[in-house]
Specification:
The protein has about 220 residues and is of the alpha+beta class. It contains six helices and nine strands.
Length: about 220
């Protein structure tokens, strides 16, 4: 299993580092140079997995564009309350930690599995059979849009009785999580600060998904 991240993966989450740091300067749309708010849209270049900051006016130009260089990253977060996966199926995904995200890569023609680490996003050797079995048990995964939507899994503490969490999220949220971990991780266990940031991240996802307020299932 690879222990290092590729240049493409580095490019993808580099644009999201601002989520884990204070904004030291005004960000601008990489298409038209318009100043952006802290919460702005992104485009993704599937070939490189590079994320591009964009204003709404520029982002909408790439909505539903077939064959375009960039794709608009959606905004919706869906909490998958009834997601079905066994411990054996999870082990079959060959992810060494209890947190990962999965998305369909158009250039590679398959589902890619990545997990966050202090060194950045690391790719797991996902097998087609393992993913197919899980997808068949969870029709909601048909809602994953290639390159721009991912299944985000948080099973940290699951073996000790904590509830696992499963979401369909915009791909930029996955790289935001990677950026948080890379920025705040200290020592072998990560330290108190990184786990506080991870907890806040997933709490914000739940709020966006409307958990406890008529959440999606």
């Amino acid at each position: 299993m690879p222990s290092a991240f590729s240049p493409q993966q580095e490019n993808a989450f580099a644009a999201l580092r601002q989520f884990a740091r204070k904004r030291a300067f005004a960000e601008r749309c990489e298409m038209c140079s318009r100043e952006l708010a802290a919460d702005h849209e992104h485009l993704v270049e599937p070939a490189s997995r590079k994320l591009v900051c964009a204003c709404s006016a520029c982002a909408i130009l790439f909505e539903g564009q077939s064959g375009a260089k960039y794709k608009r990253v959606p905004r919706e977060v869906i909490f998958l309350q009834d997601f079905q996966i066994t411990d054996g199926q999870w082990d079959g995904l060959m992810v060494p930690i209890e947190m990962a995200f999965f998305f369909h890569s158009t250039p590679h023609g398959k589902v890619i599995a990545l997990y966050p680490s202090p060194a950045g996003p690391t790719e797991s050797l996902l097998t087609l059979d393992a993913w197919t079995e899980i997808a068949q048990s969870n029709p909601a995964l048909s809602g994953m849009q290639a390159d721009v939507t991912a299944l985000l899994v948080n099973r940290v503490g699951h073996g000790r009785g904590a509830s696992a969490e499963y979401y369909l999220v915009p791909i930029d949220e996955c790289y935001k999580l990677v950026g948080l971990i890379r920025s705040y991780w200290r020592g072998l266990s990560g330290g108190t600060e990184v786990w506080r940031e991870i907890g806040a991240f997933f709490a914000a996802l739940k709020k966006r998904a409307g958990v406890g307020q008529g959440a999606h299932a």
